[in-house]
Amino acid sequence: MNYSQILEIASCTDPGMVRSHNEDSIASDAANGLVVLADGMGGYNAGEVASGMATTVVTTEVQQLLAKIQPHDLDPETKSPLGPRMIREQVIKANTSIYQAAQSQPQYAGMGTTLVVCLFYDNKILVAHLGDSRLYRMRDGKFSQVTRDHSLLQEQIDSGIITAEQAKHAAHKNLVTKALGIDPSVEPEVREYDAKPGDIYLLCSDGLCDMVDDEDIGMTLSALGGNLKLAAQQLVQMANDNGGKDNVSVILVRVLRDYPAQRGVVGKVLGWLK
Q1: CA gap 28, 110 in Å, rounded
Q2: How many domains does the chain have?
Q3: Residue 140 within a domain
Q4: What tens digit of pLDDT does each residue of 117-142 get?
Q5: How far apart are CA 161 and CA 163, in angstroms?
């Protein structure tokens, strides 16, 4: 199935007002219903290398798999859809690539990256993430956060040490508890959600959500949701207007219509004809 008539995608990335180069990386493949965002970390240009490797490896590997199998195909062993396993394994592959590069090249030592991957299929959105880059959803006028940060701050909120309001002003916002490329093995959080026509999904680096309150992000999507490109640019501009202390990246995805999986020979033929 070609998703380019089913999903509308817009994106924007910017170094921000303080940093000289951009360590975020974004990728989208509308035809395959795939979007990827990564926020790199590490000295010199190492963060840039890590995030670029993450988006490239995940995108390329998933594209190659989708040429042979479909995410709704059933795993012969578990009898469940292959999608979650497919994404998990490619994220792990990206982790290995980044970790090995960091180990073998001194200038890249300690580099790593956050990651959010979304794959749309069979009226669902499959989400894999690591770190504090986020996925949000606007549905029926309600704006909500889908992912939970893998961060020290989130753990402190969960354990009641600080409140969500206090967390907005915490000094250690950017200490992540999970990232890609830091350790030889990693376990991404992989979840699946139902998607509906009219949904707008926002992937963003912490350069947006650290600089702009969720309420203001939601209001901007409500006001400008009819023009995703403009909305993406406006969100980045708002982060910069508020100080732009970090690189800021956003990807917006609108679901235009239902996209049930084409099962069986007749379904596949109909899918090819669309």
Answers
A1: 27
A2: 1
A3: yes
A4: 999 999 999 999 999 999 999 999 99
A5: 7
**Short-list 18, 95, 6, CA closest to 53:** 95
Burial of 43 (0-12, 13-18, 19+ CB in 10 A): exposed
At 273 the pLDDT is: 38
**Could you give the 3-state DSSP secondary structure of residue 191?**
strand
What is the C-alpha separation between 43 and 1, in angstroms, rounded? 41
pLDDT per position as a tens digit, 21-39: 999 999 999 999 999 999 9
**Chain segment 209-219, per-residue pLDDT in tens:** 999 999 999 99
What is the full DSSP assignment across 34-99? EEEEEEEESTTTHHHHHHHHHHHHHHHHHHHHHTT--TTSBPTTT-SBSHHHHHHHHHHHHHHHHH
3-state secondary structure 25-50: EEEEEHHHCEEEEEEEECCCCHHHHH
Residue 233 lies in a domain: yes
Show the domain range for 69.
Answer: 3-14+21-148+176-273
How far apart are the two ends of the chain, measured CA to CA in Å?
A: 8
**pLDDT tens-digit readout, 206-245:** 999 999 999 999 999 999 999 999 999 999 999 999 999 9
Specify the 3-state DSSP secondary structure of 218.
helix
CATH number of the domain bearing residue 101: 3.60.40.10
State yes or no: pLDDT of 254 exceeds 50: yes
In a domain, 154, yes or no: no
CB 133 within 8 A of CB 205: yes
User: Residue 168 falls within a domain, yes or no?
Assistant: no
Strands 115-121 and 34-41: antiparallel
Helical (H) or strand (E) element with 231:
helix 228-241
Query: What is the pLDDT of the chain when averaged over all its residues?
Result: 92
